[in-house]
Amino acid sequence: MITIQKLGFRYASGEFRLDIPNFQVSGGEKVAVIGHSGSGKTTLLNLIAGIMIPLTGTVSVEDTQVSALGDRERRDFRISNIGFVFQDFELLDYLTVFDNVLHPYRITGALKLDQAVRGRAEALTQEMGIGDKLKRNPNDLSHGEKQRVAICRALLPQPRLILADEATGNLDPDNKTLILDLLFSAVTDHDATLLAVTHDHELLKRFDRIVDFQEFQNKEAA
Amino acid sequence: MIDSLYIAWKYISFNKVKTATLVACITLISFLPVALERLLNESEKQLMSRAVSTPLVIGAKGSALDLVMNTLYFDDEVPELITMEAANRVMDSELALPIPLYVRFQARGNPIVGTSLDYFAFRGLRIAEGRQLAVLGDCVLGARVAESLGLKAGDSLVSSPETLFDLAGVYPLKMKLAGVLEKSHTSDDLAVFVDLKTAWVIQGLGHGHEDVTKLQDPTLVLKRTAKNVAATAKLYHHTEITEKNIDGFHFHGDLAQYPLTAVVAVPQDDKSETILRGRYLTREETRQIVRPADVIDGLLQNIFRIKNVLDAVISVVAFATILAIILVFALSLRLRQREIQTIFRLGCRRATIARLLAAEILIIVIMSGVFCGALIFVVNQFSNDLVRMLFIR
Q1: Which of A32, A28, A6, A31 lies closest to A19 in space, CA to CA?
Q2: Are B346 and A79 an interchain contact pair (Cβ–Cβ within 8 Å)?
Q3: Is-contact B99 B59, C-beta < 8 A?
Q4: How far are the Cα atoms of A114, A185, A198, B11 from residue A105, in angstroms, in the given order?
Q5: How many angstroms separate the Cα of B183 from the Cα of each of B144, B190, B191, B229?
Q6: A80 and B347: CB-CB below 8 Å?
Q7: Which terminus of chain B is less hemmed in, N or C, by CB atoms within 10 Å?
């Protein structure tokens, strides 16, 4: 699913440097990425999503070499194939829950919003237990509910890859488990791959594979 | 674009205060110059049409503008008074038809215009209901006065005292409403017309009381001689002119010396006008003769000079407002950086973000345009009344 080869990246400003000689994630895998703050976990997600471009090497998702795509193609590829779940949910407070879930369809021409999509959105929100809150404003929801909305938004375009950046970071212990359960079952149901950056070590055992970013970088460097 | 408009509309309707402030700013800054232009054009039209249709006005020397505004628009500012002799002089000259005017008193906030029947013919005013002025104490109302006071022929209307606490001043006179004029869409709609003599009765120059020669109460008689009886202040004066007491009303002294505010002179022809104007040019002359069109033209030139200044001020304010609006959008963009970053990470193109912001601006501009259009429509509909309310009576 994800193939990274000889990747080199450096921010234009600052001394941070990320080098990944080789990294692969298979389809359907649920991989946790851990590491201390500033080690480059979020940068890795951004590189995989094509938000950032490596200086050297290649990043491929399925058969598409993301790093070789033009700006427009990368965005279209991202919105159609990659679902993002953020730590702070990043919902728009001026849209209803339902509009937030449909939002990716309204900001790109790569996705077509039709009745089938709306039906799927309704089913997905039911599945996530927020079906009765579709007309509510995100500000009226609990953190757990907000993250469910964010997961629905990420899953609706039926992406092959879900990138979760500290998706459970802002949740209480009960909600962490619940959201991870939902995320795992949704990823399984939708036959997707999950790459999740997390600091929650108690949840790690549930992932198929754990990549410790520090060790990973040291090992790769050695 | 429809999706962009939808999201923009959601954002705008969620941030109501910000949107309302922006819309109000844009609406006002677009509406003000248009409304000002419209109102000034309407005022020019109204002022000039009445001024042009009034050939000459004779009044006391002093402010020509006060004289014209009082004579044409029954303005509250009463010019220096002249006497009825001024009207007689025009009549005697046979150069023009004199129409005397005494515009000094009010009835329930509306000016009482003391004049002769010639005035109605001169202005083309027709009776819509009731009859024309016939006897002392009658009044005829302009259409809008009758409408606003809810009066009809047969009702009565009481004149107002000039000052509330002046016991020695003008006493109220209960006037009988003889008729109501047809609407003329001029200042005449807002006036109460009486005969000159009725106006003088209101002032107290003419009055009615019981026959002093038949007084029995000694406290009412100050001095009694064979030819004359002087009454005391205790003598009751009538405050209403009725069929029974009308014969008791009388005027003391020479009517030629009774006051007027102005005389409208309607010359026979251009030559008569020139001759008549020439007669008021001597240094000893205590009266002036003016062409209202010239006076109003001067006034309008001043108004338009002020309008130019206002236009400049509005332009500066508009520029400042536009800068403020740009600042609001720029600050709003900063505040929304995170939101923009999120949709950017989701896969939104920069052009789509620009389109979303453009859609917000478009909606705000359209809303402002609609409000501005509605306000301009209201101004257009009521410009006639607004001009009268703001600039003239």
Answers
A1: A6
A2: yes
A3: no
A4: 9, 23, 28, 17
A5: 7, 10, 11, 48
A6: yes
A7: N
Query: Torsion over CA of A39, A43, A45 and A50, rounded to 10 degrees?
Result: -160
Cα B51 to chain centroid distance, Å, stands at 14
Min Cα separation B18/chain A (Å): 13
Residue type at A181? D
* Tens-place pLDDT, residues B295-328: 999 988 988 888 889 889 989 988 998 898 889 8
Strands A161-165 and A193-197, bridge-based pairing: parallel
CB B180 within 8 A of CB B130: yes
Q: How far apart are CA B241 and CA B342, in angstroms?
A: 86
CA B96 – CA A161 distance, rounded (Å):
100
Query: Strand B138-141 relative to strand B174-181: parallel, antiparallel, unpaired?
Result: parallel
Q: What is the DSSP string of B80-95?
A: PPEEHHHHHHHHHHTS
CA distances from B313 to B27, B307, B376 (A): 17, 10, 20
DSSP B224-283: E-SS-EEEPTTSPBPSB--TTTGGGEEE-S-GGGSEESEEEEEESSHHHHHHHHHTT-ST
* A107/B352 CB distance under 8 A: yes
Q: Which residues of B touch A164 (CB under 8 A)?
A: none
Radius of gyration from C-alpha coordinates of chain A = 17
ipTM of the complex: 0.82
Q: Which residues contact B281 (CB under 8 A, 6 or more apart)?
A: none
Residue A40 CA to residue A19 CA, distance in Å, equals 10
Q: How do residues B136-193 score in pLDDT, each as one tens digit?
A: 889 999 999 999 999 999 999 999 877 666 666 677 889 999 999 999 988 899 999 9
- Cα of A222 to nearest chain B Cα, Å: 33
CA dist B389 and B176 (Å) reads: 27
A183 close to A167: Cβ distance less than 8 angstroms: yes
The DSSP secondary-structure symbol of B154 reads T
Give the global pTM: 0.71
Are the C-beta atoms of B280 and B288 separated by less than 8 Å? yes
Reference B22, options B377, B318, B324; nearest CA is B324
Cα distance between residue A38 and residue B81, in whole Å: 93
Rounded to the nearest angstrom, the minimum Cα separation between B341 and chain A is: 10
Q: Which residues pair with A19 in a beta bridge?
A: A8
The verdict on a CB contact (< 8 Å) between B339 and A76 is: no
